[in-house]
Amino acid sequence: MRIADRIADLGTETAFAVSGEAATFAAQGNRVYPFHLGDINLPTPSTVVEGAEKAIADGKTGYCPNAGIPQLREAIASNVAASHKTDYTAENVVIQPGGKPTIGKFILTLMNPGDEVLYPNPGYPIYESQIEFHGGVAVPYGYVEGVKNFELDFDSIERGITEKTRLLILNDLQNPMGAECSIEEHERLAEIVRAHDLYVLADEAYFDMRYSGESTSFVEQPGIAERTVVLYTFSKKFAMTGWRLGASIGPKEIMEVIAKINVNDESCSNHFVQYGALAGLRGDQSEVQAILDTLEARRDATVNGLNAIDGITTFTPDATFYLFPNVTELMERKNIKSYEVFRRAALHATGVSFTSRIHFGRQVDDESNRYIRFAYSGIDVADIEEGLGLFKEWAER
Q1: Which residues pair with 247 in a beta bridge?
Q2: 30 and 169, same structural domain?
Q3: I need a labelling partner for 26 at 20 to 30 A (CA). Which of 44, 56, 81, 146 fits?
């Protein structure tokens, strides 16, 4: 069989490979404490479920407009315009079957083969995969440890810009680090974007997943909304990961192209799920707040458990459901140089399953610190405390 050459450039979401290993380990009769996958083991709010059920009963099971049902586009536009201090309308919103499709469609719309795209690394691995699959050149930029959390490494951003640079991907709030940009970082990045005439994908999948403070969007910066596509998803805030619904939000001219790609890719997003999401946006938000309260308790338990381990330090992020602990000292003390050896040793000794830096983009040559990622969205507090107790015993042995 002859597979197309381009498939060699298509990567994958490597956290799912770790999930498969953990499942195999559990099937052998072992206890697993799942910190590896950013799924949410909490029920979707009843407003969403009942809205979708009603839509099914009302016959909303056929095709719908390829850009999404007008009511949902209007509701998202109104919601995001208020939170992002913009003037978005329904024309600026195109519904997608999840958050992830916006990444590829943004790249298809604005990148020609050979164009260079700046992307965060460590970062969501699908950025790198989609850039290269569509014939672009993926240019990584990094982060540095700040006082409260990780911060953009502006030196690496500026070094990465050439005359071929066309796009920049910004993940704010960030997976895997749990980091978010300050206003000062947004201002400095906006200067760079305007100076080099770049277009931006602002991946804001975790914009509403916060425990304190207020999220700010890059599109609030002067001259940025007209050159930025926002990635919006229902997966996180409404615990709808398996429902697969999101949106692309941005300039009308770009949205028209993305809607055209919708026609070619999937015709339209699921009809009745859109009505469920609409009910979620319009309905009582107490169940959404309950999800956040539960995740905050899990965050605190995970942060406390990790920081109690000799050789591990981690920040306490105000948002997302990820931690990116520094394990440099611990790996050195255990004389383990390989991330995969470290990860598998921990799994088999304790049942604690996590991903590491290498699951979030290719390592660059000058990396000296070592990091792992803990997602606490799919594990209860009691199991967090029990699992990290075992992890501490192993780590300090």
Answers
A1: 95, 232
A2: no
A3: 44
